[in-house]
Amino acid sequence: MKILIINSGSSSIKYQLIDMKKNEALASGLVERIGEKQSHISHKILIAEKSYQKMVYQEPIPDHYQGLRKIVALLMNPEKGVITNKAEISAVGHRVVHGGENFQSPVIITEQIKDAIKANIPLAPLHNPPNLIGIEVAQSIFPQAPQVAVFDTAFHQTIPKKAFLYALPYKLYKDERVRRYGFHGTSHAYVAEKAASCLGQSLKTLNLITIHLGNGASMAAIKNGQCIDTSMGMTPLEGLVMGTRSGDIDPAIPFYLADYLGMSLQDINTLLNKESGLKGICGINDMREVLKKYEKNDHLAKIAIEVYCYRIKKYIGAYWAALGHLDAIVFTAGIGENSHLIRGFCCEGLEELGIEIDKVKNQTAQKGICHINTSKSKVSILVIPTNEELRIARETLKVIQSGSFEEGVH
Ligand code: ADP
């Protein structure tokens, strides 16, 4: 069985065609700059086990409908295609950013579900509208295939009120839905399940801290398999220091910026989301480049890394306290999977909490799943590559097999 995964952004469509028997992507890619004069398409196909051939195209793609048609044409290309007929695609799984409080699990998309996703637009004005466009174009191109929505927020819906409620007037929660939702749920859930299988235990008996460090970054505290807290909030701006996002700041800073620097709300929004984080401190948002500068003793790169890791370490302490007992810490995503330096700084000095990283294992960790704690460490420290698309595909399969059309709407 083959499932197509779509992550539709405002001017891009990210996709993967997954073979569910092999648990492997047959093709994947990204259509970018939709609506511009020249769109950019990168497309990869599986040519041998774990070996992909990459192709790049430049051509105008006026809208998402044409973007998805192009993807289908590439998948069915007579020479380099991976399917011969679009009916081979049994289902389409959509990444949907914000499910609000309506969705705790994935659902088959009906008109009612689309209305619920629309109703959550005020909570994710940049993400839910292009997610809906992706759903509609996929429905028109694959009318025969069930379409499933998998929400980024769903995994965090088990967070108790004491952790999701802000100390604001309660009315703002009741009437305006102001609360912590959390994001990257698919990734946290995926690595948590992987951690359980590599520790040989049931997820239901494990307490974990999962640390997703990509361009965006977030952490989750998972107790007996259920998420009890997460660092992103009502929006993805809260929590850790990210590539260009500030993460936690004093909420009074925007007033200061407005009063004393005359910045508008829009300016402040751009500043906190696009000009802050690593980029704000040292001018660069890409961690690989920041690390290169760090190695050349660049002062600001050093400070940026210190601030970045200190914030993570504080959250490890906070989540350790929230969990009461910790079995494992999991590092994942671009930075978590690849930078031993960052992993090392985040765990430094936590021995009293039972967290002891093994310097050699950490430094020599290869691609794939690695244990990087010492044999004495009470807490396992794992590096686990995330695979959000595979989890979306598995969730899609589960939903279509159970045939639950409206389950999950609350
Ligand atoms: P996204 O959130 O876009 O999915 P990724 O998970 O791909 O992001 O992570 C992107 C981040 O990972 C970037 O900051 C990038 O510099 C960083 N990264 C990728 N490879 C490495 C590496 N080898 N060492 C350090 N950082 C890396």
Structure, explained:
Helices cover 38% and strands 21% of the residues. The protein contains 15 helices and 14 strands. It has helices at residues 64-75, 111-119, 128-141, 161-164, 170-176, 185-199, 253-261, 265-274, 277-282, 287-295, 299-323, 333-338, 340-347, 359-364, 388-402; strands at residues 2-8, 13-19, 24-32, 39-48, 51-59, 89-96, 107-108, 147-151, 207-213, 217-223, 226-230, 328-332, 370-371, 380-383. β3 and β4 form a beta hairpin. The radius of gyration is 21 Å and the shape is globular. Bound molecules: adenosine-5'-diphosphate. The site of adenosine-5'-diphosphate has 13 residues, from α10 and α12. Adenosine-5'-diphosphate binds next to α10 and α12.
Poorly predicted regions are 406-410
**What's the end-to-end separation, in Å?**
30 Å
Tell me the number of helical segments per DSSP (H or I, 4 or more residues long).
15
Largest sheet: 8 strands, mixed
Order of helices and strands: EEEEEHEEHHEHHHEEEHHHHHEHHHEEH
Radius of gyration: 21 Å
Strand content: 15-25%
CATH topology label of the largest domain: Nucleotidyltransferase, domain 5
